[in-house]
Write a structure and sequence with these properties.
- 47% of the residues lie in helices and 16% in strands.
- The protein is an alpha+beta fold.
- The protein has a three-stranded antiparallel beta sheet.
- β2 and β3 (45-49) form a beta hairpin.
- The radius of gyration is 12 Å and the shape is globular.
Length: 64
């Protein structure tokens, strides 16, 4: 299977949160417990693994 990487915009579209909220998940220790996937930096781009984002969404669905 091919690993797909997502941009910030694509992550926002996929999870339904704005850029600021995704950045809170990344940088604010209060949100660390959510376990949001960490991005990978390639050159000047910050990208997320689509599979990791999908897994995170599934995990959230399982906790409701």
């Amino acid at each position: 299977s091919v690993m797909k990487l997502l941009t910030m915009k694509q992550v926002c579209d996929k999870v339904g949160f704005c850029r600021a909220h995704i950045n809170r998940f990344r940088n604010d220790p209060k949100y660390a417990y959510l376990g949001f996937p960490r991005p990978v930096r390639i050159g000047f781009k910050v990208l997320w693994s689509e599979a990791e984002v999908d897994d995170w969404i599934q995990l959230q669905l399982g906790t409701r």
